[in-house]
Amino acid sequence: MQRDKFFKEIENLRHPNETLVKTHCSYCGMQCGMNLRVNTKTNKIIGVEPRYDWPVTVGKMCPKGVTAYQQTNHDDRILKPLIRDDASLKGTKDGFREATWDEAYDLIVKRFQELQKNYGKDSLSVYSGVSMTNEKCYLTGKFARVGLQTRYIDYNGRFCMASAAGGFLRSFGVDRGSTLPWTDLHETDCLFIAGSNTAECHPTSMFRVWAVQERGGYLIVADPRETPIARRADVHLDLRPGTDLALANGILNLLIQNGYADEEFVNNHTNGFEETKELVREFTPEYTSELTGVAPEKIIRAAEIYGKAPNAIVLFARGIEQQVKGVDNVSGYTNMALVTGKVGRPKAGVATFTGQGNGQGGREHGQKADALPGYRKIANPEHVKAVAKVWGIEPEEMPKAGVSAYEMFGLMEQKTIRGLYLLCSNPAVSAPNLNYVREQMKNLDFMVCADFYLSESAEFADVILPTTTWSEDEGTVTNLEGRCIKINKAQEPLGESKPDWQIQVELCERLGRGKYFSHLKTASDVGDEFRLASKGGYADYYGITWDKIEKQDGVFWPCKDEKDPGTPHMFLDKKFYHPDGKAKICALPYRPPAEEPDEEYPLRLTTGRVVYHYLSGNQTRRIQFLRDMCPEPYVEVHPETAAKYNIEHEEFVRLFTRRGEADYKVKITEAIRKDTVFVPYHFGHDKSINLLTIAALDPMSRMPEFKACAAQIEKLEMKKVQ
Asked: Buried-most residue among 248, 315, 630, 655 (CB within 10 A)?
């Protein structure tokens, strides 16, 4: 009754012209439910309210979500196309002038056609992102392969979700980021969370985490830092950065040796057990401790808790994925669930904390270098044939697979790639080894950037096209569970900005490829074609209509037709997606990080998020409240390490690696290992920690090793900081 009274009082306080638009947050994969408050008279979003009817987060929102609406009408919005007049100023905010859409389009078409005439179709490239709708992600793949006819397209999920995708594909034969709905989390008996600072990065999951412990369940956390969630854990496995695979193998060995393997499940539904059992035998608690730095008794206790739990869920995030063996790490932790049979049923399974809002859907429908809609593969002739039919092209017209995001910069250096169309991404902050990446962007013959803010990457562009924010368009996204949900339009586009899908359609019409795009007049039109293109693929969205999403609070894929309600729980029939229907338990030899500490660089550098910022910070650093809460990056240093280098709290230091250097204020804390330093990655220009990170790539996912490299620290005199 009190709650009803509260909401009634809120209604009485509404502006007379106010309406509520039901939608979801624009940031991480939680996709928290929200109502945007809109003044219908002024066509302006004026605020936000949580949605208590949304089953995933039931009214929970984080500081980013509460302020997300402020990005739409921000003073920094780009409202008209911009053309660079002075090429000598590339890499700066200067040298641009406003232009009309016709002038911008004419210049892009002229330069793109010149480059392709002189250097071939593949001289152009597309670099995209997954903080946009499925419809836009789908069309971007078609734009590259049919509109521009280039093989070179990849996306920023290569720096975020690619290792999870590779691990799931190898273990299960299919990549859905969670084998079960998020509403199962608080009902399980044990949560094993690896490489996730959940309380800061996915805080609206925490009420479910706490609920497990309140019911008498257990929480195990593997992380080099004593994060807020690690402090509450029953066991904190404080491993060295880059040693997750050794830890996973060590725990798996104990699960097998101590009788926690589910023999019936293993024998009937998996392959690879005997080989894996033999490989992990050497990973005794003592040997695992030697590799990871985790005390043997902690390893033993973690295996005992997970093994005895009737139901358990393994969750992980970028901490284990952004490594040169990220795919192996994912399969290694997934092995725990497969060996114990804790997958393919409610309250037990494996899941990844998705970093970007559409990190799941954005990798399924054609933005990856080797992928087509529905999670089909370019290397498979039947897959190419199915998509080519939807697109109206001959199979032989489909470009071959390209290369991963970071490898595209190598092709720019070689002048194989000479032009770039960049959207929904900011690699001038987010890519590793930034000095190299920025140099390649600067040396491009021609670059187009579609964005609603002048990002650090847009500073390298020749043309900037103003796009809409998430609240000025509509479409679907797929959250961290694999649940497809609907984003609704709350206000008309600001200034002359246009949705990305519309820009791509209009460009293709001018490029002479309009017959493949001109029928797409609305986001709904794009959605219908996207559903058709996914039909029959592993990630089958054909049965996911906007009406069904509304009726069901979202629809889990696969969903094959209009009568199919979707698939909240994967593998309930114990049938996996490999040809023989079995999952694969993977024998994974341990490999150290690509770069280990030595006398010259004795520390381990790792990176991550803070609660107040998102990805490269292009959006959140402009929101006053979020900027006030975390205005600058910092370096976490253990007190004993600080004493060794004669460093005081809040003094400035210079961090060095073999790739670069940057200056940061020190935060002395016992929450970090003595051999490790940590810097958040949301900051640009000379504050970006990715000036220092290494571009060693996972051999399968091509994910860079953001989470581990060798570093040195030097105390700075104040005069050096000025």
From this structure: 248
Lowest mean pLDDT among 85-89, 510-514, 629-633, 679-683: 85-89
Q: Give the Cα separation of 387 and 374 in Å (integer).
A: 9
Residue 14, token pair as written in the block: 């509404």
Enumerate the β-bridge partners of residue 82.
98, 464
**Under a CB-based contact definition with an 8 Å cutoff, are residues 254 and 298 in contact?**
no
601: which DSSP letter? Answer: S
Give 667's DSSP letter.
E
74, 495 Cβ separation under 8 angstroms: no
Please choose, from the candidates 150, 153, 149, the residue with its C-alpha nearest in 3D space to the C-alpha of residue 128: 153
Tokens (6 digits) for 497: 């900005």
Average pLDDT, the chain: 96
Give backbone dihedrals phi and psi of 521, rounded to 5 degrees, phi first. Answer: -95, -20
Contact 400, 391 (CB under 8 A): no
Give me the residue label for tokens 């502006």.
15
Residue with tokens 């809409």: 468
Whole-angstrom distance, CA of residue 677 vs CA of residue 692: 12
* Residue 713 to residues 92, 205, 311, 602, Cα–Cα distance (Å): 29, 35, 44, 9
Kind and range of the H or E run holding 420: strand 419-423
Phi, psi of 508 (to 5 degrees): -65, -35
How far apart CA 38 and CA 29 sit, in angstroms, is 24
DSSP state letters, 95-164 = SEEE--HHHHHHHHHHHHHHHHHHH-GGGEEEEE-SSS-HHHHHHHHHIIIIIS--S-EEEGGGGTTHHH
Nearest to 10, CA basis, from 52, 68, 40 = 52
Q: How many residues does the chain have?
A: 722
Least confident of 86-90, 185-189, 408-412, 592-596: 86-90
Residue 397 to residues 123, 145, 147, 151, 391: CA-CA distances in angstroms?
Answer: 17, 9, 12, 11, 11
CA dihedral 212, 215, 216, 221 (to 10 degrees): 10
Cα separations in angstroms, 283 against 97, 211, 589: 62, 33, 10
Question: What's the CA gap between 484 and 647, in Å, rounded?
Answer: 49
**Phi, psi at residue 605, to the nearest 5°?**
-100, 130
CB 202 within 8 A of CB 209: no
Is 659 in a helix, a strand, or coil?
coil
Report whether the peptide linkage leading into residue 597 is cis, meaning its omega lies within 30 degrees of zero.
no
The answer, yes or no, to whether residue 720 has pLDDT greater than 90, is no
Residue 286 pLDDT = 98
Tell me which amino acid residue 24 is.
H
Residue-by-residue DSSP string for 16-66? TTEEEEEEE-SSSTT--EEEEEEETTTTEEEEEEE-TT-TTTTT---HHHH
φ and ψ of 448, to 5 deg? -115, 135
For 526-558, write each residue's pLDDT tens digit.
999 999 999 999 999 999 999 999 999 999 999
Helix (H, G, I), strand (E, B) or coil at 257: helix
d(CA 96, CA 50): 39
Residue 307 and residue 251: Cα distance in Å, rounded?
A: 9
Residue of 184, 186, 236, 181 whose CA lies nearest to 210: 186
Q: Which residues pair with 487 in a beta bridge?
A: 475
Please, what is the angle between helix 244-257 and helix 285-292, to 10°? 170
CA distance 347 to 71: 37
Q: What residues contact 572, with CB distance under 8 A and at least 6 apart?
A: 344, 345
Is residue 721 predicted with pLDDT exceeding 60? no
- With cut-offs at 50, 70 and 90, classify the pLDDT of residue 11: low
In DSSP terms, which residues pair with 34 in a beta bridge?
A: 23, 50
pLDDT, position 501: 98
Structure tokens at 667: 């935060």
E strand intervals along 564-620:
583-584, 603-608
CA distances from 249 to 197, 235, 437, 591 (A): 22, 17, 35, 12
What would you measure as the largest C-alpha separation in the chain, in angstroms?
A: 72
Cβ–Cβ contacts within 10 Å for residue 661, how many?
15
